[in-house]
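Box 4.2: Ligand-aware structure prediction
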Amino acid sequence: MDKDIHNEIIKVLIANESHLGYVPVILETIEAAAKVRGTGIAKRSPEYIEQKMKEGKAIIALAGKEFAGFCYIESWGNRQYVANSGLIVVEKFRGHGLAMRIKKKSFDLSRQMFPEAKLFGLTSGAAVMKINTKLGYVPVTFADLTDDEAFWRGCQGCVNYDILLRTGRKYCICTAMLFDPSKKHRK
Ligand SMILES: CC(C)(COP(=O)(O)OP(=O)(O)OC[C@H]1O[C@@H](n2cnc3c(N)ncnc32)[C@H](O)[C@@H]1OP(=O)(O)O)[C@@H](O)C(=O)NCCC(=O)NCCS
């Protein structure tokens, strides 16, 4: 297990009901980071994140009892696609490989829960592109992603949503990345 800058062991866990008390700090941290980056975010209610934890579809990182990081998984298009979303690492814990550990745990969980599904993500961040590449994702066009309307509604809160609309959902600022289990051997 890795030690962080404060010499504290950070655990990366599949969240459950015992972590519901962390929901407010998770949402506040995601929102504050989006403001700093100047991006919009898919609106997530406390109930939505709570549900993820209860379903065993969220990953939480804790330094002792202190919140350090988070992400969750969601299936789309009749479980044919799975997205890893809401990745956040608290600022003071960044730069030490924690996001990579969270994403790896989330990747393994997605593969276990939805073995046939294609895993995908939309990101404008270099760190996430690097992590996804290490996990075997490749860049794809938006046409290769789910056409599930509910997924794309998540983009409505983004400052660039007008671009997505204008291009008929073909192009936007984010890079789409996909892991297709049927093409694993091409890695
Ligand atoms: C993006 C974020 C999750 C990265 O967390 P982290 O724990 O610092 O990331 P890691 O230490 O695991 O780094 C993973 C890789 O990305 C690189 N990286 C980290 N931050 C980076 C940055 N700002 N720019 C470019 N590369 C970066 C690291 O060098 C590492 O690559 P390497 O393995 O080749 O060295 C964190 O900065 C964050 O929470 N940001 C705000 C929210 C956000 O942007 N979420 C993603 C939305 S898509």
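In the box above, the bound molecule is coenzyme A. The longest strand covers residues 66-76.
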